[in-house]
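I can't quite decide. Please look over this sequence plus structure tokens:

:::
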Amino acid sequence: MSYTHLIREHYPQLTKSEKKVADFILSAQEKIIYSTMSDIKKHTNVGDATIIRFCQKLGFSGFSDLKIAIAKEDFSHQATSDTAVNFADLVSKRLVDAILATKQLINIDHINQAVDYINQAHQIYIFGVGSSGNTAVDLESLFLRAGIQAKAITDPHFQAQVASLLTEDDLVIAFSLSGKTKDTFDSIAIAKKNHAKIISITNYLLSPIAQQGDVVLQTAIEEFLNGGSLAGKISQLYLCDVLVNGYERKNNIDTLALKETVLRSILDKSLD
């Protein structure tokens, strides 16, 4: 039984406060999987206990359990609708859509502000864990080819140690699609306390990690059940490339000469 039918079936037995939660979830539909209990409380003016009781009346252990069920249902619907499509075309469409959706969210003023922070920074560190940690390493490589020495830190313990030693002259670039990754948030909170500048790269402008940012660059791929997907990474990498190109243009960097220098440095690493 779908979650909407489940809610409507139990609706008459819900209290007045629980019905507020039900109405909000029905109106939000699949988007509810990206909401927190705080979001629901804000929109319904009910407490944690009411939300949990509502979920338990539907047969779920709590709000997270309900979100997983909704995500599974949405994922199953998408999989069913995709069966008639050539899977290679489907994959390419998702990746192209990821780039186009991210492009729509680009704020050039924010890109320019981020470039200014990069120019002004004494030290640059890139924080991310999991799949976002891989993107952090990719950005380190892209920066190096543009003449920027930055360091990707993907271990949360090292992130915290590095953050504790930063100053107002330093910069942290933080990756998190959800904007709610606790390890990354904890690390940039330490950096923020030391007055380092923060560039947050995330989906959600109101997420905790975005709120810590001095500037936010917005990705576009929502991932709840399919974390670490290639589409999410493409969204991040597209922004990385835009950021690096923005830096090269603003500083009038001779990219051809720089690329030649880098290429010559690694030519002898190739086997004949």
In short: The two ends are 62 Å apart (CA to CA).
